[in-house]
């Protein structure tokens, strides 16, 4: 009689545990992809900002754009 109660409970626990483990693996894998994507975007931003920093000396529009970017970065920080 105990087997009739224990085995179904164990099966449910195993099923639940397997589902939770699968979900955790998906979360970890998703984070890794997000970090790679963010790294790529930040590298692109760095390259553009470096180029703009050099060009701001001669180009007023680039200087204005960098000023606005600086303001936005402060707003994001706040």
TrEMBL record:
GO biological process, one term: defense response
Keywords, comma-separated and alphabetical: Nucleotide-binding, Plant defense, Repeat
One GO MF term: nucleotide binding
A Pfam family hit: Rx_N
Gene3D superfamilies assigned: 1.20.5.4130
Keyword Nucleotide-binding: yes
Ranges of residues in domain Disease resistance N-terminal: 6-78
Signal peptide (residue range): none
Name the record gives this protein: Disease resistance N-terminal domain-containing protein
Record organism: Citrus sinensis
